[in-house]
Specification:
single chain; 239 residues; alpha/beta; Nucleotidyltransferase, domain 5; five-stranded mixed sheet; 28% helix
Length: 239
């Protein structure tokens, strides 16, 4: 049986990323970290990954979306695009958590493998996404991908994760971890830079969900915002 061809879309943060995979192998990747670029780049990146791989979009077996938490606008753009493709082609859609994808991707990084060799199975992985000010979206995983603490929105100070840090080393990464380095001053806190969301991290989680037939309802699926979106109305100018 041929391996499934899956289109992956990641727009939960400022990074706009698209990948095409066949089984567990990445065929093509296109991404950019330019802010507010999703609407302009997403469709172009989708065309690019198919052109580079020599595949046609009609050939896909599923479309995968990174469901959040993350940017309200970015998630809406990504999910709307994934839904449109799935509906038009009559293909299933799978969704995986953004932090879950990041944790899977971290295990492929040399710096994380070095920490794993040093600390063994005691090491915890904590992907973090910036949620403005000193708040982050975070989740804690074992290196076997078991969830130790569920996804939450945390206001970070020096004592936020102290109980976990007192008992085991923790590897923090993602754009939310950058503002926590100075605050989380603990010998068990390790920070890895440059590990941000990418569609390439979605390949294994999406493949697993595809093989288990864990498909989303295209009509009713909604991103995982974690926090309610609050629209602000500009104040009227006083003449």
């Amino acid at each position: 049986m041929a391996e499934p061809l899956i289109l992956h879309i990641e727009t939960a943060t400022d990074i706009c990323s698209v990948a095409l995979s066949e089984g567990d192998q990445q065929l093509s990747l296109a991404e950019s970290g330019a802010e507010r670029s999703h609407a302009a780049l997403l469709n172009a990146f989708i065309r690019k990954v198919f052109e580079e791989s020599g595949r046609e979009i009609e050939m896909i077996n599923a479309v995968a979306i990174s469901k959040g938490p993350g940017s309200y606008t970015g998630l809406r753009i990504g999910v709307s695009t994934a839904k449109g493709i799935a509906y038009a082609l009559e293909k299933p859609m799978v969704a995986s958590g953004t932090l879950d994808n990041m944790a899977h991707g971290a295990l492929d990084q040399h710096s994380v493998r070095e920490l794993l060799r040093e600390h063994g199975e005691k090491l915890l992985l904590c992907p973090m996404l910036d949620a403005r000010r000193m708040e982050v979206y975070s989740c804690f995983y074992t290196t076997g991908m078991d969830v130790v603490r569920e996804v939450s929105a945390d206001v970070v100070d020096r004592d936020t994760y102290r109980e976990l840090l007192e008992n085991q080393p923790v590897c923090f990464f993602g754009n939310g971890s950058l503002k926590c380095e100075e605050v989380l001053d603990h010998p068990n806190a390790h920070f890895i830079r440059g590990l941000n969301p990418s569609a390439s991290q979605m390949i294994i989680p999406a493949l697993n969900r595809f093989r288990q037939n864990l498909f989303e309802d295209v009509a009713y699926f909604e991103p995982y915002y974690l926090k309610d979106f609050i629209a602000t109305i500009p104040k009227k100018k006083v003449l």
